Amino acid sequence: MANQLAKAGYQVEVFESRSHIAGNCHSERDKETNVMVHVYGPHIFHTDNERVWQFINSFGEMKPYTNRVKAITNGRVFTLPINLLTINQFFGKTFRPAEAQQFLTSLGDKTIENPVTFEDQALRFVGRELYEAFFKTYTVKQWGMQPSELPASILKRLPVRFNYDDNYFSHKYQGMPANGYTEIVEKMLDVPGITVHLNTAFDPALKSDYSHVFYSGPIDAWFGHQEGRLPYRTLDFEVLRDQGDYQGTAVVNYCDNSQRYTRITEHKHFSPWEQHEGTLCYFEYSRQCEEKDTPYYPIRMANDKIQLEKYINIAEQETNVTFVGRLGTYRYLDMDVTIDEALKTAEKFLECANSKTQMPAFVINPLG
After folding, report:
1. Whether the model pTM is above 0.90
2. MF terms per GO, please (predicted)?
3. In the annotation, is 263 catalytic?
4. What residues form DSSP beta bridges with 47?
5. Is there a catalytic annotation at residue 161?
6. Of 120, 42, 138, 37, which Cα lies nearest the Cα of 81?
7. pLDDT, tens digit, 9 for 90 and up, residues 259-309
């Protein structure tokens, strides 16, 4: 948004509470191994949106990258997402696609007609064995609650394929920036009219100093948490540096209780066009987000929706403020969706400015 509005002639100030730009996408070279590290965990760019793909490519080279995830459960290694190879390996079969589909249908719990919870969704479509091997324990580690407490919508993002395609994503465009995400954001901000303030959180009390504020921090923080803190999960990373190749791929999920961490990510595999003798891995642990932690994933349970509605109602009474992004709208957003919404929000602002109408608090409905 800063890039688009500055190009339209506006003076824009960007406030960043951290010591660096690019937010959770921030990447930098590790001093010991020279590996490009995704400091706040891996970000893999994937989209079907032509406009978004062209936009990000205008700031840096996006090299082809295919995310191929492995999963360890009960002492065996499998491929994710669940596909024909996973099914045949797990059950010791040699199914063809139609046979595998029929077999999985036979395992599903037909008594669950309208899945409401994560557990319902899994049992209905993949059956108890695959659910317990790949989803149940991993979900407890990731979300800190039982799958029976989570909405079915979470599992709808995890496909089952009846072919041998092990590409984790199915989008037309997939890639990684050749020189990391931070360089791309640097170029976005390298426009006359943009001033960046690092180590500076924006104080809502300063709102009147600006013609408009786009707030991408936590919506509950803007209002001093007056309706309570919206719940998030956060991540802790245990870093391992070693020589050679630690696990042979970028991402390995640990789906059972053999380890406390949810997954290991080996960062040099996110840049397969580079060669490194050393390696760097993140052992990833998920837990409830506390006051001083970095929020990652909004939990969005039913009671959170009621709490969020209260904040939305208050926010809609604000003037000259628009709430944007994952934290500002309390939604889980991938990078391509975030960029698309940012471009649309900038366009909406210019449209409102030209017509001298008030910019809404939300361009995208957080409950939509």
Report:
1. yes
2. UDP-galactopyranose mutase activity
3. yes
4. 173
5. yes
6. 138
7. 999 999 999 999 999 999 999 999 999 999 999 999 998 987 766 788 999
